[in-house]
Write a sequence for this structure.
C-alpha cells in the first residue's frame, strides 16, 4: 500500500508495539501512543534494550524525535 505522507505510515502504528532505534544504539520497545510532526513520540509499557538485551522496564516514556534513527513494528 503506497502512502501519500510518511506520517501516514507512522499513524498506522498507533496503539501497536513498535521498536524505536536511537542514535546512541539503544532501543525502546513499547506501544506507540502519540507522535508529532517532529517525530517526538510517547510509548506506553516501554522497555529499554541495549545490544538486544532488555535493561529496564520504564512504563510511559517520551522520546525526542531528533534522537530517533528508525521506528518499526515489533513482529
Amino acid at each position: 500500500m503506497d502512502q501519500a505522507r510518511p506520517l501516514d505510515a507512522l499513524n498506522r502504528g498507533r496503539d501497536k508495539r513498535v521498536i524505536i532505534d536511537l542514535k546512541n544504539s539503544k532501543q525502546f520497545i513499547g506501544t506507540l501512543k502519540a507522535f508529532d510532526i517532529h517525530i517526538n513520540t510517547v510509548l506506553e509499557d516501554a522497555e529499554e534494550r541495549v545490544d538486544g538485551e532488555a535493561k529496564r522496564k520504564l512504563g510511559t516514556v517520551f522520546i525526542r524525535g531528533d534522537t530517533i534513527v528508525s521506528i518499526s513494528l515489533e513482529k
User: Anything to note?
Assistant: The radius of gyration is 12 Å. The chain has one domain: 6-73.
